[in-house]
Design a protein that fits this description.
This protein is mainly β. It has a single domain, classed as Rieske Iron-sulfur Protein. It contains no helices and eleven strands. The strands form three sheets. Strands 2-3-4-9 form a four-stranded antiparallel beta sheet, with no helix packed on it. Strands 5-6-7-8 form a four-stranded antiparallel beta sheet, with no helix packed on it. The two termini are 15 Å apart. It comes from Derxia gummosa DSM 723. GO terms for molecular function: 2 iron, 2 sulfur cluster binding; metal ion binding. InterPro entries: Rieske_2Fe-2S, Rieske_2Fe-2S_sf. This is Rieske 2Fe-2S domain-containing protein.
């Protein structure tokens, strides 16, 4: 499926995460401080726990509060432990202020 509308850009903000449900999948849009918005499957790769209600984001890193795994908000790479990564989906901002996502393509 091609890109589909996720939300208006004003609903996401730098330094925050926002959860969404897209085609039956939990997704979080994470906008790290000084970076660009990124979209990830809202599931920790450790134990497949949802990150929607089980995570903390400080504007730079995301921590899964179930088992303490830590991820870089700029690229989804695991910081603790290293060698893991959140599943990322392409997102884009349109000229009319909308955010679009493609959940059929993984980056």
């Amino acid at each position: 499926m091609p890109f589909q509308t996720l939300c208006k850009q004003r609903y996401i903000a730098e330094g925050e995460t926002v959860p969404f449900a897209v085609d039956g999948r939990e997704v979080i849009v994470m906008w790290p401080d000084g970076g660009q918005p990124r979209a990830y499957e809202a599931v920790c790769p450790h134990d497949r726990q949802s990150l929607v209600n089980n995570s903390d984001f400080n504007g730079r890193i995301l921590i899964c509060t179930v088992h303490g795994w830590v991820f870089d908000g700029r690229d989804g790479n695991g910081l603790d432990p290293q060698g893991c990564k959140l599943t990322e989906f392409p997102i884009r901002m349109t000229g009319d202020g909308m955010v679009e996502i493609d959940v059929d393509t993984e980056l």
